[in-house]
Amino acid sequence: MMSYPRYLTLPQDYIKNKIKYFLKEDSPQGDFTSIGTIPETTKCKAYIESQANITFAGAAIIAAFFDTNTELKIKVEDGQKIGNGSIIAEIYGSAREILTKERIILNLIQRLSAIATLTSEYVDIAEPYGVKILDTRKTTPGLRLFEKYAVAVGGGHNHRLDLSSGILIKDNHIASAGSIANALNNIKKMNLHLPIELEVENFEQINEALDIGVDGFLLDNMPPQKTIEAVKLIRSHKNGKDILIESSGGINLNTLPEYVKTGINAVSIGQLTHGIKSADIHIEIF
Question: What amino acid positions are annotated as catalytic residues?
Fold first, then answer.
């Protein structure tokens, strides 16, 4: 059955290159406020603290901001559920450096922890039924790998990373190609050896695609009862047991319990990465 890699680690070079860019963006000629108010030799202690119950993500990111001149103790692991008041990390080093980097550190770990926290809420509902929670490409430009990582450490699974990683034929592709048959046959002629998934809205589209052959179906905006019927139709095909069946389209924490009982394999949730509010985390300096 088709699946994509799960991004449970982040390459250190990738993290450091991103941080270098973010710091340059935020402080192109220096942090004049910190330089002007704090003597160069001043050192301080800082705590990164959660102010809510969250699933944390971002330990490797915090670590990548500092070198051996700074004492850093990270107290939690990615994917760990922590409570309000939990100390995430202790930092001792240059006050100027800590203050210059404070906002970017928080921006990243607040966002990633929010994604991991929301993902874990969906996973808690879906996992007992063997249903995977998937992300989408509705990510922040420049942060996609970070955000997909946060989904993974929150217990979710990753859909395709980018447009080169897999085939997902949607309604606009079908309209532009002229038909499902045209779209599928044109793709198959390319011999890309990539999984082919088709977005469908009705049983006619499913039957047409089953005759041609696909690796997965995305059932778009199908209510639960119709989803049950679609699953039966797909599974009754000779290769139906090997086909991924994914539901998508406005599914939320309130409606998810009905979908996980339908026999589907996965639910993709765009809200995981584009509808979240940053987690409540702050840095306190002493």
Answer: 103, 138, 170, 199, 220
